[in-house]
Specification:
Blueprint (H helix, E strand, L loop, with lengths): L1 H20 L6 E17 L4 E16 L4 E7 L4 H17 L3 E7 L4 H10 L6 E5 L3 H6 L12 H4 L4 H4 L3 E2 L2 E2 L2 E7 L1 E5 H6 L9 H15 L4 E2 L5 H10 L19 H23 L6 E2 L9 H6 L5 E4 L3 H8 L9 E4 L8 E12 L6 H12 L1 H10 L18 H8 L4 E6 L6 H16 L5 H16 L2
Helix pairs in contact: 9-10, 10-16, 13-14, 16-17
Length: about 475
């Protein structure tokens, strides 16, 4: 009986030691072993009493599981091409940062208004576009995380200063420009040839005249524009001698009293009011259309389908044409020219958009890792330069061998411009842009006179800043 008892006791001790060595878990583990107690176990047999000293070992196994962080990234889109390019670059980012997963969301209408509304609902994305015209509104509402709290100066110094300026306030930077574009004239070379026109229009008056001639000779509308589009009109005003618009107080509404503004804004509204609405009333073929008039969703689509001869648009249209209309060849079928000149020279608009970080994000560092990757040299080399998306916002890519010739050509136009205006006319540019454009569109459709539209736009500034 004593022998059986001894065997049982020895077995229990051995099992206890073995069990201590089997504690563990999956994943990456860190194991530390340290003696915690020393004791004596007395084993009695019939023939001897043996004292065996054993060291009890406590084994602690700690499992470290790397948590995956999910961030939401929201932007608008210039079409399928841009969305595909972003999906590709996001996949590359997730390979480099396997602990971060990015959900890409495309908002097609009223982007900035929807983003601001999402803050009120507590569902704003972690990273999102902010256009230069909306930057003051987002900054003043405290919606943007200060990038300067996360970025090294050596990183931000890579960017063109004029592109950073709209996103700065009180010494802090609130976003990184992902790229930029400028307005240029896109024209269909073959339609020009059919109409007997040998070169693109050099003045705004020639633009309208060429549109009429092309329509008469080919039956294709000569020019497509957006209804409204105050920002598209500004180069017309400034190139004819008007000051750059800037609205930050009620008295700044006097900009619309400038004779040059009145004359050029009336001309711009009449492009469609006369070139489309009146022409149709007279039973004639319109020489100016908006994209929907020819069954297109936007200017790039109308031009790519060759349903119009000319459009004024930015670099974002270039990759769209290459992807969606590969048989419509740059240099052979279509080309670009600087914007027409006014009485005071040539002026164009520059557009830039930041990747801003939600001021309330739970993952500021991961959001910054994403922004830095997309906007940094690596991201811009792939997404902007190689993909031909737009123009790089980082200095030094001007002569990169991978830059598309179309983008190089637009950059070559810069010396021809007297002014290059960044899309921003005061602390409420985004809100005023929409309201201005609504008034202009109404007048273009013939619902009010150009004079009435100008008066409405003036009142909008007064009302916006009266308080």
């Amino acid at each position: 009986m004593k022998k059986i008892y001894s065997l049982i006791l020895v077995s229990i001790v051995l099992l206890g030691v073995a069990a201590a060595g089997c504690i563990g878990g999956g994943g990456t583990t860190t194991t530390s072993t340290s003696p915690t107690a020393t004791g004596s176990t007395v084993i009695k047999t019939e023939t001897q009493v043996q004292t065996q000293t054993t060291t009890q070992t406590k084994t602690t196994t700690q499992t470290q599981i790397e948590k995956k962080v999910f961030i939401r990234f929201a932007g608008w889109s210039a079409g399928e091409t841009e969305m595909k390019n972003y999906q590709k670059i996001i996949s590359e980012f997730e390979k480099k940062y396997p602990n971060i997963e990015v959900k890409y969301e495309v908002i097609t209408k009223m982007f900035h208004e929807n983003i601001l509304a999402s803050f009120g609902a507590g569902v704003a994305p972690d990273v999102f576009y902010v256009d230069s015209s909306w930057a003051p509104i987002f900054i003043n509402k405290g919606a943007l995380y200060p990038i300067s709290n996360l970025a090294d100066k050596s990183f931000t110094d890579q960017f063109y200063p004029f592109l950073l300026k709209p996103f700065e306030k009180n010494g802090k930077l609130y976003g990184i420009p992902k790229d930029w574009s400028m307005l240029v004239l896109f024209y269909n070379k073959k339609l020009f040839e059919q109409a007997g026109i040998t070169k693109p229009p050099q003045t705004w008056e020639e633009l309208e005249q060429d549109a009429k001639i092309i329509t008469e000779k080919t039956g294709v509308p000569g020019l497509a524009i957006y209804l409204g589009g105050f920002n598209r009109y500004v180069p017309v005003a400034v190139s004819n001698g008007a000051p750059k618009p800037w609205f930050e107080k009620a008295s700044d509404a006097s900009w619309f009293d400038n004779p040059v503004v009145k004359e050029t804004l009336t001309w711009y509204i009449n492009l469609y009011r006369i070139g489309n609405v009146q022409m149709q009333k007279e039973g004639k073929k319109p020489y100016v259309v908006q994209p929907s008039d020819v069954g297109a969703g936007w200017l790039g689509d109308a031009f790519g389908q060759q349903k119009v001869a000319m459009v004024i648009s930015g670099n974002w249209m270039i990759p769209f044409l290459a992807d969606q209309f590969p048989d419509f060849k740059y240099g052979t079928d279509w080309d670009m020219a600087p914007l027409p000149a006014g009485k005071d020279g040539r002026v164009t608009m520059a557009y830039t958009v930041i990747l801003g970080i939600n001021a309330k994000t739970k993952h500021p560092q991961e959001a910054w890792d994403f922004v830095k990757f997309i906007t940094g040299p690596e991201g811009q080399k792939d997404l902007v330069v190689k993909a031909g998306q737009t123009l790089p916002s980082i200095k030094g890519f001007e002569n990169d061998p991978d830059m598309w010739p179309q983008h190089k050509k637009t950059l070559s136009f810069i010396p021809e411009y007297k002014q290059l205006i960044v899309f921003l006319w005061g602390p409420k540019s985004g809100e005023l842009e929409g309201k201005f454009s609504d008034a202009m569109a109404s007048a273009m459709r013939g619902e009010m006179t150009p004079e009435k539209a100008i008066e409405v736009m003036k009142q909008l500034v007064q009302e916006e800043f009266s308080s």
